[in-house]
Write a structure and sequence with these properties.
Blueprint (H helix, E strand, L loop, with lengths): L12 H20 L3 E2 L5 E3 L12 H4 L3 E4 L5 E4 L4 H10 L9 E10 L11 E10 L4 H17 L5 E7 L3 H16 L7 H9 L14 H4 L10 H16 L5 E2 L11 E9 L9 E8 L2 H4 L7 E7 H10 L10 E7 L2 H16 L4 E3 L6 H10 L2 E7 L1 H5 L2 E6 L4 E6 L3 H9 L13
Parallel strand pairs: 1-5, 7-8, 12-13, 12-14
Antiparallel strand pairs: 2-4, 3-4, 5-6, 6-11, 7-9, 9-10, 10-11, 14-15, 15-16
Helix pairs in contact: 1-4, 4-8
The protein binds histidyl-adenosine monophosphate.
């Protein structure tokens, strides 16, 4: 048997309904905040992600799926959405018509990570990117959008952790201080951090291996090295969150795993024990140089992305079901070859008219067919054999009221419509999922 690659998963029919509902909720929220959908390629030229030789983020150095295509071009499966959106923004000159572009996307991302609960090699992100404004208010708006999604999904126990990495001046001063500090403990650092000490000392604070050591906890905090402008900006973001009554916790070790961030960075964490180590369901921050690094004009940006699997996992643990059970309008039990043929014809007419229908294609017994009608959550069951067919009649049962009637086969469609009490058949199933 050929099996799926490690770190991937199948979304089976029962689960896909939950995905559709999540996507629906996301689209509604994006509409409320006026973010427009953008769809970018799943693979990009490798340069989109591997821009900077000094980038030490794990995602960029060891987690991307890189390969050469048949024409020897360097290709990378997108590990995240931001860089691809930024590339599309520059290439399509989106800045020409709109001073601020508010964009959202959903889709698969790929990272060669060690799979575990909530961590896959192919996973899906929902992300938003607001490009063109340096306003602290838009940082707060992005976080508010995230909080609205959490609320709409009925999730509780979610903490917003926030920090500021300041502007370049603040960060370079802080980096110097960090290098001096961690150099004293160089022998105690893990191999990755020894490398980070040279290439990107800030990322040491993000280390999962070293973080419990005492010297690590006592490391200098970035907040003490922010210049006045960066401090004021961070305060403005926090004040805006306060004004919207959004709760947050300042976490001065939060630096994020990607190198493009400046000023505001944040993560949304679910505090449910069953969730395990991968409890960050969404994260983001400001990036003011990414667009220019990709060849565009100097354009500030801010955004965030949620792991959609983690969102579904969190709703699951919260005991929430996003989608109602699937249902259909009518299940046809046709007994005998001729009745089956007629059922197929009537079903097709009903489907064209907007009613969802199903029948048994396995010649099952009457009992098993009733069971299938039940399993399909059919609102109506229509039963007829060859005798009834001769009179063009059938028995129709309303499974909601248990009421049964004998009606003309020609009347099935109109009968169901009238019972559904709608002027015209809806396009969806009766449960209005
Ligand atoms: P990120 O923190 O790398 O940020 O990923 C965002 C979210 O994607 C994570 O919080 C997590 O929920 C989910 N995620 C990441 N890796 C995996 C995985 N292997 N399996 C399952 N879920 C995963 C970014 O990607 C940035 N582009 C976010 C951003 C947007 N910043 C600004 N704009």
């Amino acid at each position: 048997m050929i099996t799926k690659p490690k770190g991937t998963y199948d979304v089976l029919p029962l689960e896909s309904k939950e995905w559709q509902k999540l996507e629906e909720v996301i689209r509604k929220i994006c509409k409320l905040y006026n973010y427009k959908e953008i769809r970018t390629p799943i693979f990009e030229s490798s340069d989109v992600f591997h821009r900077d030789q000094n980038d030490t983020s794990d995602m960029v150095t060891k987690e991307t799926y890189d390969f050469k295509d048949r024409s020897d071009r360097g290709i990378t499966l997108r590990p995240e959405g931001t860089a691809g959106v930024a590339r599309a923004f520059v290439e399509n000159k989106l800045y020409v018509d709109n001073p601020v572009s508010k964009l959202f996307y959903m889709g698969p991302m790929f990272r060669y990570e060690r799979p575990q609960k909530g961590r896959n090699r192919q996973f899906s992100q929902f992300g938003v990117e607001a490009l063109g404004s340096d306003s602290a208010y838009i940082d707060a708006e992005v976080i508010a959008l995230g909080a609205s999604l959490i609320r709409a999904l009925g999730l509780k126990d979610v903490t917003v952790k926030i920090n500021s990495l300041g502007d370049e001046e603040s960060r370079s001063k802080y980096k110097e201080v960090l290098v001096n500090y961690f150099s004293k403990y160089q022998d105690c650092l893990c191999d990755d951090c020894k490398n980070r000490l040279v290439k990107n000392p800030l990322r040491i604070l993000d280390c999962k291996v070293d973080r419990d050591q005492e010297f690590f906890k006592a490391a200098p905090k970035i907040n003490d090295y922010l210049n006045q402008e960066s401090k004021d900006r961070f305060k403005k973001v926090l004040d805006s969150l306060d004004s919207m009554d959004l709760k947050y916790v300042i976490d001065d070790n939060l630096v994020r795993g990607l190198d493009y961030y400046c000023h505001t960075v944040f993560e949304l964490e679910v505090n449910v024990p069953e969730f395990g180590a991968q409890n960050v369901i969404g994260a983001g921050g400001r990036y003011n140089k990414l667009i220019s690094d990709l060849g565009g004009p100097l354009t500030p940006g801010v955004g965030m992305a949620f792991g959609m699997e983690r969102l579904l996992l969190a709703t699951n643990f919260a005991g929430k079901k996003l989608a109602k059970d699937d249902s259909i309008h009518a299940y046809f039990i046709a007994l005998g070859e001729k009745a089956e043929k007629e059922a197929l014809k009537i079903m097709n007419a009903c489907r064209i008219g907007g009613l969802s229908c199903e029948m048994d294609y396995l010649n099952g017994s009457l009992k098993s067919q009733f069971k299938k009608a039940d399993k399909n959550n059919a609102r109506f069951t229509i039963i007829f054999g060859e005798n009834e067919l001769e009179e063009m009649k059938c028995n129709i049962k309303d499974n909601e009221t248990d009421n049964q009637e004998t009606i003309s086969l020609l009347e099935v469609y109109n009968y169901i419509l009238s019972k559904l009490n709608k002027a015209s058949a809806c396009n969806t199933c009766p449960s209005k999922n």
